[in-house]
Specification:
With 493 residues, this protein is an all-alpha fold. It has helices at residues 11-44, 48-51, 53-76, 78-98, 102-130, 136-164, 169-172, 174-188, 208-231, 236-256, 272-302, 307-335, 337-355, 364-389, 398-427, 442-463, 472-475; strands at 430-432, 438-440. The chain has one domain: Growth Hormone, Chain: A (Up-down Bundle), CATH 1.20.1250.20. Strands 1-2 form a two-stranded antiparallel ribbon.
C-alpha cells in the first residue's frame, strides 16, 4: 500500500478534520460573496441585478454536480474524489480572486460550484462510513461547526475583508485553508471502498440519462428559485426554466425508478425515516436559511445598520448551535429524535414569529438573545434529523443516500430564499412618506418572518410522523456497543 494511502491517524479524526475544513469553505462561500457583490459591480461597471450572475452560476453548477457525487465516490473512491474536488475548489478560489472581468469571475465561480457539489456529499459519505450507527450523533456534531459558524461568519469576515482590503480577498481567503486541508488529507485521509465483510463494492455503470435529467432538473429549478423573486415569477425566462426543470425532475423520477442501477437511488425514499427526515430537513432548512438571508436585509436596508455590524448581530445564532450540539448529542439517546425534532422546530417557529416585531426601537441585546435561542433550537432539529435519516441506510447505500440528502438541502435553502424574497418583493420593501421621501417598509420584513415561521411549523408537524423505533440503531450509546461494530477498515483502490 502506498505511504500516502496509509492513514496515520484514527480514520474518524482524519475524516472529521478534513471534512470540517472543506465544508466550512464551501458553506461560507455562499454567504461571504454577498457582501462583496456591490464592490464587484462597481469595479466592473455592472448594475446590481447583473452582478448576481456570480452567485447564480455557482448555485446552479452546485445543484448539477451534487447528483453525480455518489457514483463518482463509489467508482473512483471517496478519498480520490474528495481530494480532487478540494484541490479544484482551492484553485478556483485563487482564480476568482485574480479575475479581471465579470465573465472570468463567473466562469471561475462555475468551477467552484462543480467542486462544491462534490465536496459535501462525498465528505458526508466518508464521515458516516467512518462512524458506526451508535456513534452517528458524534459524526453529526462534527458537521455542526461549519454548518453553524460558516453562514454567520461569512458576512462578518466578508465585510471586514472588503472594507480593509478588497473584494478579491473574499475568494483568496479560501486558499490557505484549502491547501492545509489538502496536505493533511493526502497524508491521513482513508478511502472507503469496501463493504463490512471486506468484499469490494461493485459499482454500476454510469447512468447517462439519469445524470442529464438530474442536471437539467436541478440546474434549471435552482436557477428559477434563485432568480424568480428578482426577475418576477411571471417573466418568460423564469417560467420557461422553472417549467422545464420540473418536467425534467418528473422524467428523472420515472426513468430512475425503472433502472436497476440509477444515478439517484430514489428507492431509498421507501425507508420511512429517511423519507420523513428529508422532508423535515427541507422545510426546516428553508425556514432557517431563509432567516439568515432575511435578517441582514432587515438590519441593513430596513434599519440602516452597516454590513459588518449586521453580520455581528447574526453571530449569536452560531454560538447557540455550537452549545446546543453538545446538549443534543446527550439528549438524543435518551429521548429519541421525535421529541427533540418537534420541540426544536416549534421553538424555532416561535423565535421567527417574534422577529417579526423587530423595529427601530427594539433592544439589540434582546434581538441577539432571540438569535441565540433560534440557533440553540435549530441544532435540536439539524442534528437529530441528519442522524435519524441514515438509521436504516446500509453501508453500501451511504453514498447514494448522502447524494439525495444533500440535493434536498440545496433545494431547501434555495426554496427558503425564493419564498421569502418573493414575499419581500410582493409587499414592497420601500414606501413613500407624505412628502414623497422613500423609506423602508418594515411590514414586508414582518410578513416574510411570519412566512419563515410557518415553514418551521410545517417541519414541526412533519416531526410528529417520525418514529423513534425506526432510529433505534442510532440511539444506542457508543460505550455500550458490542465489540466489532467499528466501521470497516479503509481500503485503497
Amino acid at each position: 500500500m502506498p505511504f500516502a494511502d496509509r492513514p496515520r491517524l484514527d480514520p474518524k479524526a482524519a475524516v472529521g478534520v478534513v471534512f470540517v475544513a472543506a465544508l466550512f469553505m464551501s458553506i461560507m462561500d455562499t454567504t461571504i460573496v454577498n457582501v462583496a457583490l456591490p464592490s464587484i459591480g462597481r469595479q466592473f461597471h455592472v448594475d446590481p441585478a447583473s452582478v448576481g450572475v456570480v452567485n447564480v452560476g455557482y448555485l446552479v453548477t452546485l445543484a448539477v454536480f451534487v447528483p453525480l457525487s455518489g457514483w463518482l465516490g463509489d467508482r473512483y473512491g471517496t478519498r480520490r474524489v474528495f481530494l480532487g474536488a478540494l484541490a479544484l475548489f482551492t484553485v478556483a478560489s485563487l482564480l476568482c480572486g485574480s479575475a479581471d472581468s465579470l465573465g472570468q469571475l463567473t466562469a471561475y465561480r462555475i468551477l467552484q460550484g462543480a467542486a462544491g457539489g462534490l465536496l459535501t456529499p462525498v465528505g458526508m459519505t466518508m464521515l458516516f462510513r467512518a462512524f458506526p450507527q451508535e456513534e452517528r450523533m458524534r459524526a453529526t456534531r462534527v458537521l455542526m461547526l461549519p454548518t453553524a459558524v460558516a453562514p454567520a461568519a461569512g458576512p462578518v469576515l466578508g465585510g471586514w475583508l472588503v472594507d480593509s482590503w478588497s473584494w478579491h480577498w473574499v475568494f483568496i481567503v479560501n486558499v490557505p485553508i484549502g491547501v492545509l486541508a489538502l496536505v493533511f488529507g493526502l497524508a491521513h485521509l482513508p478511502d472507503y471502498r469496501s463493504l463490512p465483510d471486506n468484499r469490494t463494492e461493485r459499482v454500476g455503470r454510469f447512468d447517462a440519462a439519469g445524470f442529464l435529467l438530474s442536471a437539467a432538473g436541478f440546474g434549471l429549478t435552482m436557477y428559477a428559485l434563485a432568480e424568480g423573486a428578482g426577475q418576477g415569477w411571471g417573466s418568460t425566462r423564469i417560467l420557461a426554466s422553472g417549467g422545464a426543470g420540473l418536467a425534467a425532475l418528473v422524467a428523472l423520477v420515472l426513468v430512475e425508478l425503472r433502472r436497476p442501477e440509477p444515478m439517484l437511488d430514489l428507492r431509498l425514499f421507501r425507508d420511512r425515516i429517511f423519507r420523513t427526515a428529508n422532508l423535515l430537513s427541507l422545510f426546516s432548512g428553508a425556514a432557517f436559511l431563509g432567516m439568515l438571508y432575511l435578517f441582514p436585509l432587515l438590519m441593513q436596508d430596513g434599519l440602516g445598520m452597516d454590513a459588518l455590524h449586521s453580520g455581528l448581530m447574526v453571530f449569536p445564532e452560531a454560538v447557540g448551535v455550537m452549545i446546543a450540539s453538545q446538549v443534543a448529542g446527550r439528549l438524543y439517546p435518551r429521548f429519541g429524535p421525535r421529541r427533540l425534532l418537534a420541540t426544536g422546530a416549534v421553538v424555532v417557529a416561535s423565535c421567527l414569529a417574534l422577529m417579526a416585531t423587530i423595529g427601530p426601537g427594539s433592544n439589540l441585546w434582546a434581538v441577539r438573545g432571540l438569535l441565540f435561542v433560534t440557533g440553540f433550537a435549530m441544532a435540536h432539529v439539524f442534528m437529530p434529523s441528519q442522524t435519524a435519516a441514515f438509521a436504516g441506510v446500509s453501508q453500501r447505500s451511504t453514498g447514494a443516500a448522502s447524494t439525495l440528502y444533500n440535493a434536498q438541502r440545496q433545494l431547501g435553502s434555495a426554496l427558503g430564499v425564493a419564498v421569502l424574497g418573493t414575499v419581500l418583493a410582493t409587499v414592497g420593501t420601500v414606501t413613500s412618506t407624505a412628502g414623497g421621501t422613500p423609506t423602508a417598509n418594515l411590514a414586508a420584513y414582518r410578513a416574510a418572518f411570519l412566512v419563515a415561521a410557518a415553514l418551521a411549523l410545517v417541519a414541526a408537524v412533519t416531526a410528529l410522523f417520525v418514529r423513534d423505533s425506526d432510529a433505534a440503531a442510532t440511539m444506542r450509546r457508543a460505550a455500550a456497543a458490542a465489540p466489532g461494530t467499528e466501521s470497516e477498515a479503509a481500503a485503497t483502490p
